[in-house]
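G., before I forget:
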Amino acid sequence: MRNPLRISRRSIPLLGSLAAGLLLLLAFFLGLVSFGKMRQVVTEEFNQQQLVLARNLAVLMRQDLDFLRRELLALNRSPLGETDDSATWRRRLLVTFDAVESGELVAIRTVAPSGSPILSLRPDGTVREEGGDLRDDSILLWARRPENRDRVHLSSFGVTDPRDPERRRVFLLLSAAHFHAPGNPNLHDPSGTAFAGLVQFVVDASVLASRFTADARSGSTGYAWVIDERGTFLAHPEADFIGKNAFKARHEKDPRLGFEGINVIMRDHMLRGQEGTGEYVSGWHRQLKGPVHKLIGYTAAPLDPQRPELFWSVAVVAPASEVQGMVRSLYLRQLLVQLAIVLAILAGSVSILRRDRYWAALQKEKERQVNLSSRLASLGTLAAGVAHEINNPIAIILGFADLLMEKIPPGTPEHEHLKIIEKQALACKKIVENLGRFARIPEQRAETSDINEEVQRIVAMVKNTLLTEKIRCVVELEEGLPPVTGDPQGLQQVLLNLITNARAAMKGGGTLTLRTRRVGNRAEVSVSDTGTGIPRKLLERIFDPFFTTKAPGEGTGLGLSISHGIVEKAGGSIHVESRTADESGEGQTGTTFRILLPLASPEEGQEPASGGGPPSGG
Amino acid sequence: MAEKILVLDDEVDMLLLLETIITSRTDHDVVTTNNPLELEELMARHAFSLVISDLKMLGRDGLEVVQKVHELDDTVPVVIITAYGSLESAQEAIRKGAYDYITKPFRKEQVLIAIERALEWRRLILENRRLKNGGGSS
């Protein structure tokens, strides 16, 4: 039943990552969808703003017209001189020109009650006589009606440009009924009852419209334009368009492109006096060429509440990229946040996975050690029991050998034989003593050892033997290593054991290296050989008691397990690395044992254990 | 003075060894048995001055022997000779009343010295008792 549990534990981070990935994909798609929606909303918002701007422009234009109306009425009411070119009259009219300083008022006219003559005063002071017109007839009729006395009549007319038949100049005509004192045609009397004709303002529609649209801005590059009820451009940043028919002007500019979008908007909505928002594709935007997706807000600017058929249409347009820029930055920010979250999740999962693996490995190592310890412990008890059992026979052998040696004269072969018997029995005793020590509970007081000293002692002992076995001995000791916990005899025993094993591995000769160094709060002794190495499979088991690769009788298999016990008892640890011919390939085979022992007093600095070497100077 | 010594051990050869050691070097008499349960019977039959015993024997534990001997005659010292040498067991044996503790394998001198010391101790104890009883006894 353990298995399912173990699988799910290990794959939780994996599943988590998968789930996170799926969620992210979902979020991504939703993000795209919301991007579209966002764009729509923002576009609509933007367009609404454009609409508001258009309305404002319409209001401004209307206010300007109202101003002109008021000026006209004011002029109408002020007493005038005679209707011919008297200086006073001219001066009065010029005052009005000054009042209307924007240049949209191009002429002030007076029309005789019969419709002729028509005198026209220009801002520069010149007067012209113009021919009568049918249009004026209807206005005269309107003017005669008493209810229209203080009203202003509005009409518009267009004049084709003689130089360019495609161009029309649009004018507004504001007319007011003019009365003079009865009996005195020369005296203009606002309260007079005699109809004296009309006083008119001729207003350049383009100038009026452009006044307000010229500086209009939508976003950063958007602009405004105005068309009249016939579709003639009254105002446009493209000066060339002004006076041309909107449908034709665009097409002329770039015949390759169709302007269906804007044409539909103009025809079906703007020219019907509607207001609203929309989108279309244009062939350019200001200086930029190429299909440009544009947003438009438009409204109607009525000129005269009495005449609803007279209106202009104001449009405010801007490239959709203005909006898109805004939306895109929002979306990018959102994307970055998503990415950051993903990266965080990924990083988290990866670190969890690695940590998991690390803990699993650590767990395994701990288990192995516990297993080893318990195995060793039980074996130890067993070994202790066995050891003591052997003591009996050994004692008897030794005892009788001793007694016999007393009886048999020394020098005789029999005596020698008995000595051999005694010697071997003592050897058995030694083994048993070791076993006993191995099983003993460590209650003894920890002594300390100077590992450099012990290494040197052992090396001195084995040096000659090594030479005869053609083994080169390299000793590298770190100066000034402080003492470690563990009794010297134990350390010696361990070193001797390791060196014995190393010798056995280097039958034809080799190099034996002994090193000591400080590693943090511990000291390390390493014994390395260039022998045949220990295969990885066996490395785990070399510390097991009775484990040996030697032939029966050659060794007990206890050396390493005893060494392990001694090191552990001293509070240290023993590690091994090895490379056999199969594993190393071209490299050197060999084994290295590392013993780490805690320093007796970790606070001690680098004081040399004894005397210290000569100061390094060369 | 020739005393009588009782030796208890599982192992017959060990009994022979100890007997040989003692008789070849001293005048003492030795009685041996590999059956520790015979202890009471033998002590009733002979007047032993010293008992030498192993610790781990089938049938009876060495510590039990120490106690028993003390019960039967508290002037008789018990020397433990054992293969299971450990500080703990030695301490325990001494606490329980053993006079001395020798581990196997041993040097025969160890055994001989221990025997002499134990017998000396007994002589002193006996003299002490005699002196104590001597002041007014029948």
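The longest strand of chain A covers residues 288-302. The mean pLDDT of chain A is 80.

More on Monday.
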